[in-house]
Amino acid sequence: LVGLRRAAARVLLGNWTGSSTVPSRTLYPHQWSWDSAFVALGLRHLSPRRAQRELESLLGAQWDDGRLPHIVFDAATPEGAYFPGPDFWRAGPFPGVRTSGIVQPPVHAFAVWEVFRADPAEAERRGFLARAYPRLAAWHRYLRTRRDLGGHGLAAIVHPWESGMDNSPCWDGPLARVDPVPPSRFRRRDLDHAAPGDRPTDLDYGRYVRLAAHYRDHGYDDASAPHAFAVEDPAFNALLALSELALARIAAAVGADPAPHRRRADEVVAALLDRLWDASSGLFLCRDLRGGGLIREHGVTGLVPLAVPGLPVAADLLRTACGARFGLGRVHMVPSYDLTGPAFDPARYWRGPSWFNIGRLVHLGLLEHGAAERAAALRRSMLRAAARSRFAEYVDPLTGEGHGATGFAWTAATVLDLIA
Ligand code: DGY
After folding, report:
1. Which residues form the signal peptide (predicted)?
2. Which residues, 6 or more positions from 290, have their beta carbon under 8 angstroms from its beta carbon?
3. 299: which strand partners?
4. Whole-angstrom distance, CA of residue 186 vs CA of residue 192
5. Cis peptide before 353 (omega within 30 of 0)
6. Ligand 1 pocket check: which of 27, 83, 158, 166 to mutate, most ligand atoms within 8 Å of Cβ?
7. DSSP assignment of 222-249, as one string?
8. Which residues are designated catalytic?
9. What spacing in Å lies between the alpha carbon of 10 and ligand 1's midpoint?
10. Sheet with 231-232, edge to edge strand ranges
11. Is the model's pLDDT at 342 over the cut of 90?
12. Atom number of ligand 1 nearest to Cα 28
């Protein structure tokens, strides 16, 4: 493990830009929102101070309405290095800071609290929690108010990229209604660095571009944008609940009232159970707010609520995790999509491959709900897969073979977090 730890540290040092960490030097040469949170969870074991700065640089790009953008563009990186770059999004909170206009899952307050705990004295000296608290509270407020498009207490995502699980089969139905921009109208940069069979298709990209351009052309205003895609996603909301619980702890530590945050966490969990729980499959499903109804695809997003303490349906979720669909203990890590599903593809991004951040959240859930042996086995499987794949972005759940980028930041960070 000493060698693996050293190799993981090398990846994170190599991806550090001076104020944050790029997920990959080739495929993703800027700062990504939920990547940064997972990276900070690992960085705290190398340098708590650097982990604080990672999160602070993201919080520093917060918009006036409270949203945390999904990408903060590195000013030194040329426009052509990534598509869609800053010239496409035409957004940012203030001059000099260019960002995208969509968001990613709210795992940040959870990460801030864990980073704080790694070195409370240093955090105190730097005023880390006191500065982070109002920003995190405003972020959650944005999600609770402007993003409650269904009106039932859950935040909606308005673009598949906001789920972080870009091309999950869960989005195929809602995306089918979106008129794709023809591939001749944009130039994908991801295919310069990754195999086409590992990535979303051109048709997916055409729809991603259409949705993002629409939102942009409405000034990223949630009230007036038409939102052809609007979905309630279980992982997104479970992470919001987990982060509200962390925010309660942060509030107490800075002398604010923790009670509203605890109450909100309870409300999100109640809405998750009410709106997205599917007893017949023992899994949380996504709800399409445009087409109406639950989306009957079984994505790993539906297992992520296991990470929420006290979840009433944890035993059912555990059974589902170990069953035929997700094969926990029998395949490598946790597949991103139903192994028995018609759209399962072991190599293509979020249509089957196993991801390390998700593995970490499921690991947390297993520990939380008394499945220590299963958690230990998953941990071993993740460490093995990371070592064998040179910190791949994701792995084939059936063979353990790496796909996507190597030297991927949250893979290395997760290894550090699991070893610590
Ligand atoms: C990408 O570029 O593939 C990202 O997932 C979008 O944020």
Report:
1. none
2. 174, 177, 227, 228, 229, 230
3. 337
4. 14
5. no
6. 166
7. TTTS--S--EE-HHHHHHHHHHHHHHHH
8. 166, 393
9. 24
10. 156-157, 231-232, 286-288, 294-295
11. yes
12. 2
What's the confidence (pLDDT) of residue 313?
Answer: 98
Interacting residues of 151 by C-beta distance below 8 A, sequence separation 6+ = none
Give the pLDDT mean for 352-368. Answer: 98
Q: Where are the beta strands (DSSP E) in 224-350?
A: 231-232, 277-278, 283-284, 286-288, 294-295
DSSP bridge partners of 193: none
Q: Which residues contact 108 (CB under 8 A, 6 or more apart)?
A: 33, 37, 55, 58, 59, 68, 136, 139, 243
Number of structural domains (the chain) is 1
Burial 150-179 (b: 16+ CB within 10 A, else e): beebbbbbbbbbbbbbbbbbbbebbbeebe
CATH of the domain at 409: 1.50.10.10
Helix ranges (H only) for 120-258 are 120-126, 128-145, 160-163, 172-175, 202-217, 234-253
360: closest CA among 311, 413, 397?
413
Q: Is the CB of 38 under 6 A from ligand 1?
A: no
Whether the pLDDT of residue 385 is over 90: the answer is: yes
Q: Among 24, 26, 28, which residue has the most ligand 1 atoms within 8 Å of its CB, making it the best to mutate? A: 28
Q: Which pLDDT band, with edges at 50, 70 and 90, does 382 fall under?
A: very high
Closest CA to 16 of 215, 140, 42, 99: 42
- Tokens at residue 198, please? 């590992």
Asked if residue 245 has pLDDT above 90, the reply is: yes
Q: Which residue's C-alpha comes closest to atom 7 of ligand 1?
A: 161
What does pTM read for this prediction? 0.98
Is residue 166 within 6 Å of ligand 1 at its C-beta?
Answer: yes
49's tokens: 């101070």
pLDDT tens-digit map of 94-106: 999 999 999 999 9
Distance 126 CA to ligand 1 centre (A): 32
- Which tokens go with 312? 């009433």
Report CA-CA distances (Å) from 144 to 2, 45, 268, 326, 379. 43, 32, 9, 31, 34
